[in-house]
Amino acid sequence: MENIRSYTDSLQKYIAIMGLQERNTRLFYRVLIDNVEEMLPIVYTPTVGEACQKYGSIFQHPHGLYISLNERGKVLDVLKNWPEPLVDVIVVTDGERILGLGDLGCQGMGIPVGKLALYTALGGVRDSVCLPITIDVGTNNEDLLNDKFYIGLRQKRATGKEYDDFIHEFMMAVKQAYGEKILVQFEDFANRNAFKLLEKYQKTHLVFNDDIQGTSAVVLGGILAALKSNQESIQDQIFLFFGAGEAGTGIAELIALEITKQADVSFEEAKEKIWMFDSKGLIVKARLESLQPHKRSFAHEHEECHELISAVKTLRPTVLIGTSGHGNTFTKDVIQTLSSFNKRPVIMALSNPTSKSECTAEQAYRWSEGRALFAGGSPFAPVTINGKTYYPGQGNNAYIFPGIGHGLIICGAIRLHNDMLLAAAEALASQVTQEQLDKGLIYPLFQDIRKISACISAAVAEKAYQLGLATRLPKPDDLLAYAKSCMYSPLYRPYR
Ligand SMILES: NC(=O)C1=CN([C@@H]2O[C@H](COP(=O)(O)OP(=O)(O)OC[C@H]3O[C@@H](n4cnc5c(N)ncnc54)[C@H](OP(=O)(O)O)[C@@H]3O)[C@@H](O)[C@H]2O)C=CC1
Ligand SMILES: CC(=O)C(=O)O
Ligand SMILES: [Mg+2]
After folding, report:
1. Contact 400, 426 (CB under 8 A)
2. What is the rounded CA–CA span in Å between residue 275 and residue 423?
């Protein structure tokens, strides 16, 4: 840690810690677990974003497995090159929507590598069963295509049938190589592919889209905690999303499902409480014909509106959620207006990395006169205004996916069900203490993440058993104790 702390630049710290992962895996995880709050912003957002942007020029060792379009027809053979014969979880990207940074092609590998490091450090899934994969179908990023250090295929992205067939070959090969229960986590695909792949493969594989589903559970968890803090109920809220893509509509769907569970309303009625804003403005009925399928059920009767501030004024949301990938869009005007009719507005600026955050923690607290319940997608430091300190939370799917993945693995789940996401969200919210709520926190502390992950894992496995989707029988009597007992710890035995 002294070596890592001696670097002043975060990217240098990233290079140092990833070098350690290569040289001494156990020590890498020990360092990560013992210093989780300090190291998370390095191996994960925001630094991993910069690392992906510069991946070619900082490249020292290959991490993970690259599968390129040139290996069409031989994907199974490529998988067999991976030295570990037993794999339980794959995190895969095609690099087209890396955080809010866009198409980084093959350099997106930093994301599956980082996510799987968190599976082990935060969720206790043994690193040997984790396989990071980048599917290289080219990139449309001209800067990378012209960069002499670019590590991927120098061609435009394959699309249409060529792309679909290649992904299909991959999905079939992973089952052949690792069996029916292999968990495949899709990460940072562009939304035109993400929704389609999830829809297609959730019928035949154990798949999980972290950006759509993991994010939905983590945000719902934060909202449940905020409602507890404000002593309000979910059906009385009005939600406004700025950004109606994977994260935005994924969260909105799960919120609507939770409303139907808590109040006597249909799924459609629940959605009437939820408004969405995309790059063309408020999503309204008049735009129905031209809307992508994932947005359609959120198109409500309203006149067209092209400014976020106008939407805030007319809809009077109680919860404002940013999933646009565009920084500095929750302006002073927006936050002041939101705070004019809410005692404690909930503001979630979830876009990553920090430069893409819709507002900073300081802006949220300053412009709401300290009344906002705020969470960012990337970490923000506590803010002191007029002698009072405010503690921002981090609304990031890192709270959820390691626990969900662990839960699916320990019960031998064959499919993921939305009720498991609800169970994960509730388990997360239950971990926020009254003391933390009193400080304005809507997420528990990352320093307790392994305890939190065990709780989420047990809740997900419990739901899998209830739904008949778990194959590991008999069901353990005490799932929480079982989940904890299955967590890998990088222990050092004492010398004699
Ligand atoms: N905190 C967390 O755990 C997570 C955070 N994220 C972050 O969320 C962001 C978005 O990710 P994702 O949902 O997957 O991306 P998508 O590309 O699927 O969605 C982006 C959405 O934002 C809209 N948008 C883009 N520009 C604007 C604008 N200027 N004004 C209003 N809306 C705009 C897009 O509109 P249109 O549909 O018209 O193109 C689209 O609806 C990223 O920064 C990502 O890092 C994602 C997952 C998890
Ligand atoms: C956190 C995450 O998954 C994202 O920003 O894409
Ligand atoms: Mg992601």
Report:
1. no
2. 24
The structure tokens listed for 326 are 């565009």
Active-site residue flag, 44: yes
In DSSP terms, 137 is beta-bridged to none
Binding site residue list for a divalent metal cation:
187-188, 211
| Each residue's pLDDT tens digit, 315-359 | 999 999 999 999 999 999 999 999 999 999 999 999 999 999 999
What is d(CA 461, CA 472) in angstroms, rounded to the nearest whole number?
10
Q: How far is CA 434 from the centre of its chain?
A: 25
Tens of pLDDT, residue by residue over 244-299, are 999 999 999 999 999 999 999 999 999 999 999 999 999 999 999 999 999 999 99
* Ligand 1 lined by 248 (C-beta under 6 Å): yes
178 φ, ψ to 5°? -125, 0
Is 115 an annotated catalytic residue?
A: yes
CB within 8 Å of 102: residues ≥ 6 apart: 141
Q: 456 near 400, Cβ under 8 Å?
A: yes
Residue type, 496: R
In contact, 101 and 53? CB cutoff 8 Å: yes
149: amino acid identity, one letter: F
The ipTM of this complex is 0.99
Query: What gap in Å lies between CA 275 and CA 204, rounded to an integer?
Result: 32
Which of 28, 17, 33 shows the shortest CA–CA distance to 122? 33
User: What pLDDT digit, counting tens, does each position of 392-431 carry?
Assistant: 999 999 999 999 999 999 999 999 999 999 999 999 999 9
Exposed/middle/buried for residue 269 (C-beta within 10 Å: 0-12, 13-18, 19+): middle
Answer yes or no: are the C-beta atoms of 389 and 383 closer than 8 Å: yes
**Top mutation candidate among 101, 188, 350 for ligand 2, by most atoms within 8 Å of CB:** 188
- The edge-to-edge listing of strands for the beta sheet with 130-136 is 65-68, 130-136, 89-93, 183-186, 206-209
Residues in a beta bridge with 276: 241
Ligand 1 center from residue 409 Cα (angstroms): 30
Helix (H) or strand (E) holding 322: strand 319-322
* Measured distance CA(168)–CA(121) in Å, rounded: 31
* Element of type H or E holding 254: helix 246-262
Which atom of ligand 1 is found nearest the CA of 191?
18
